[in-house]
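Ticket #4471: structure output looks truncated?

Reporter: J.K.
Steps to reproduce: submitted the chain below (295 residues) through the standard prediction queue, then opened the result file.
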Amino acid sequence: MTQPTTIRRVPGPQPRLTGLLQTALTLAATGVPVLPLRRGKTPFGNCAACTNNACGGRPNMKSAGPCRCLGVCHAWAAATIDPGVIASPAWTAVWRRAVSVAYHPGGAGLTVVDLDDADSIAWARETLPATRTVATTRGEHWIYRGTMTSHNAVRPGVDIKSTMAYARYLGPGTGTMTALPDAVRALAVKAPSPARPAPHAVAVPTRADDGRCPHRTPAYLDRGITMAEQRITEARSAVHATVYRTFLAVLSTHGRCGCLTDTHVARLFTAAQAKGETARHCTDAWTNARTTLGL
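Returned output as attached by the reporter:
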């Protein structure tokens, strides 16, 4: 994330560069995908054309897409390094209303360990290898080379932001960036609760008269899982409820034919954990959904 001394020229008429837009173009020129944030450190919401996934979704969200909207309304999935998009009329209008620049760490091959307070910083200094650090309002960002699945609240005051997440850009930081250590990856590995074991493949007898899966093709199931992942990823509020309702919908459709496997369940859990759900929350939601359906 070392800042270059020049900014790549954008084809066509050059808009007047605001401070945020200039920062975004500078980062993009180094291969860091960027997006604007509004007040409250949150992305801009869906435009009318993309509401409720009417656009088909973004390609890098593994949805049906591709969305042809060049706006900024898909959160981390809208992050880009294309200067023609970043300085386009649509984005320029948004930069005027933005309050900060964010970036997609996973898209840049990075992982950010977000330390929220003095206690978490002290823990990191005792536990993690030194790397580039950036001061935040209340704590620090420790930035490593390498990517992993994003997780919130891996320990008190510590979030991990990498794939399918965004982090505010607060300056180049200090220190030499080092490789993502196993100690950070290990933070995301949580042992299942003894009282609530991790879910296994749903093995409920098929109801098809001829013994075949009533869904006929694996593509039907894969499409259903993809849509469920997308529904969870796009949740802007009530994440707990959205995860439970999504699990319930998947099980009500695919839970009785025996074709739902651990791989499918893991995809759903990964999407939920990327939105901040813990492994225990996922297991509880899955168990409750199965109980509701009598599985």
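Triage note (M.O.): checked the attachment and the full token line is present. The CA atoms of residues 23 and 101 lie 8 Å apart.
Status: closed, working as intended.
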